[in-house]
Design a protein that fits this description.
The protein contains 9 helices and 10 strands. With 244 residues, it is of the alpha/beta class. The protein has a single domain, classed as Rossmann fold, CATH 3.40.50.300. The strands form 2 sheets. It has a 6-stranded mixed sheet, with helices on both faces. Strands 2-1-4-5 form a 4-stranded antiparallel sheet, covered by helices on one side. It is globular. Bound molecules: adenosine-5'-triphosphate (ATP) and magnesium ion. Magnesium ion binds next to helix 1.
Length: 244
């Protein structure tokens, strides 16, 4: 059974009188442990797909399954389409599924500027995530320190993000996503704000972690050099998958 599956996904953005069809009948099935990139030119729909895979955004039609279970019910969809927003119950259900299954790495890192490296990575422990909720304080500390070492930041534990380079910040973001023990990690253009050499190192690190933990990585890029590092490439153009 697929870890995550998109079935006949459509996404339409309403911009005043104009409708932008960002995704047209997307079907995509991703297995546990894949290291996959979604590639395509600017505006092709990469971020839109990632946001739907990450349960950050809802499709206008179609279904998302995690471990075979539908995330959005037909009822959610009807309500959403009628009111442009989802019900509070659906929102809290989707939020729970998201935090227990998905770790996210952002293009612009999105670290907390007032928290140091350790505290940024510790942050997910405040969210009541099922996989890590039962960890004792000591275990938690060991896990965070393991991750800090794993991403090569042992000398920067008490430093804040503004004292770090872009590559180091992205390493913190990777460790923070991993801290949750989520089976799926999504990264929207994780190397776009980094120079080529640093970007390659970040991708290499993600790949090693993918092998070590069997975490599924799904990332987007329009950089051909980075596309070559993926095990599987899903190419999209104008909201449609053109090769898979
Ligand atoms: N919030 C929004 N409101 C209206 N239109 C949107 C919105 N977000 C995306 N779009 C449109 O949907 C289409 C797909 O956008 P998306 O951001 O998914 O592309 P992308 O492949 O990630 O591009 P990039 O490489 O520039 O990040 C584009 O035509 C874009 O203009
Ligand atoms: Mg994008």
């Amino acid at each position: 059974m697929a870890l995550i599956e998109l079935k006949d996904i459509k996404k339409i953005y309403q911009m005043g009188a104009i409708q932008v069809e960002a995704l047209k009948d997307i079907n995509l099935s991703i297995e546990k442990g894949e290291f996959l990139t979604i590639s395509g030119p600017s505006g092709s729909g990469k971020s839109t797909i990632l946001n739907i895979l990450g349960l950050i955004d809802m499709p206008n039609a179609g279904k998302v399954f995690i471990n075979g279970n539908p995330v959005f019910t037909d009822e959610d969809q009807k309500y959403y389409i009628k009111n442009g927003k989802i019900s509070r119950e659906a929102d809290s259900r989707i939020c729970r599924i998201r935090k227990n299954n998905v770790g996210i790495i952002f293009q612009s890192f999105n670290l907390f500027p007032v928290l140091n490296v350790y505290q940024n990575i510790e942050y997910p422990f405040h969210l009541g995530i099922e996989n890590i909720r039962g960890m004792k304080k000591k275990e938690q500390k060991e896990w965070i320190m393991y991750l800090i070492n794993r991403v090569g930041l042992e000398k920067w534990v008490t430093h804040r993000p503004n004292e770090l380079s872009g590559g180091q910040r992205q390493r913190v973001a990777i460790a923070r996503a991993l801290a949750t023990k989520a089976p799926i990690i999504l990264a929207d253009e994780p190397t776009a704000n980094l120079d080529t050499e640093t970007g390659n190192q970040i991708l290499q690190l993600m790949k090693e972690i993918n092998k070590e933990f069997e975490t599924t990585f799904i990332f987007s890029t329009h950089d051909q050099k980075i596309v070559d590092l993926a095990d599987r490439v899903v190419k999209i153009l104008d909201g449609k998958i053109i090769s898979n």
